[in-house]
Amino acid sequence: MDDTIKIRILASGSKGNSAFVRVGDTRLLIDAGISCRRIVHGLRDIDESPEDLDAVLLTHEHSDHVKGMRVFLNNYPETHVFSTRGTLVGCEERFPMPQNWTPIAADGPFRVGEVTVDPFELLHDASEPTGFRLDASGFSMGFVTDLGYWTDEIAEHLLGCRVLVVEANHDPHMLRTGPYPAFLKRRIASSRGHLSNEQARALVSRIAHPELEWLVLAHLSEKNNAPELAIDEISPALPTGDTNIIAASKEPGQPIELAPSELPPSTRPVKQGVLF
After folding, report:
1. Other Cβ atoms within 10 Å of 275 Cβ, number
2. Residues of the chain below pLDDT 50
3. Which of 25, 70, 93, 176 has its CA 20 to 30 A from that of 55?
């Protein structure tokens, strides 16, 4: 088994979201909110292939998270797709029922290859949206974007991760004074909208720990935030200066590569997601 751990944010923001995670021989795509061409290019650019994906995990049905799925499934029809039933129903008009689809539920961990995937409920204006925690031997990662506020239950799922991808969508002042219409400002700032920098800082303060190696700030608004602003506001929540902090953007990011480390195994019960 290859011990490679590789993460690449292919795109992040209101125009499209997608991330690739490789743990050993298991390859996952989280969301497909950009074109199939961009997904394929983003994978091949780091010597990965869409044919080798073990699963696509969908967080929710909004276009900026699934709009590449129709063409992707046309080209790679055997791809395994994991999502809640609510997400699949919400996607009915966007792409046909996947040939290989497995329904998931919040707080129902399952296995894909070497990785335990633990979905958890988020508070967002979608049908059954989820975040994900990924655990494997020597690796743990939390992925949480598109939520209006966070709870203790959400924070519990993110404790102890080596890598965190956390939404930092907007600066409240920029949102209030920015160009968006009033109804959209209310939606973004609502309890089922998106996390502000301040809310993201509070969440990071709650879950950060000295062994956190990477913090990726995600889903930044191009109109209502700026990478430097988000990093400056959230960095003080980190307990040491040893954590790498970056802001993802609409362009593919540099791959994050890690070596496996000794971590205690997950004690949460799991079901087998894909049989090999």
Report:
1. 6
2. 265-276
3. 93
Domains and CATH numbers, the chain: 5-252 (3.60.15.10)
Neighbours of 185 (CB within 10 A): 19
Q: What is the pTM of this model?
A: 0.94
Maximum Cα interatomic distance, the chain, rounded to a whole number of Å: 53
Q: What was the pLDDT predicted at 276?
A: 33
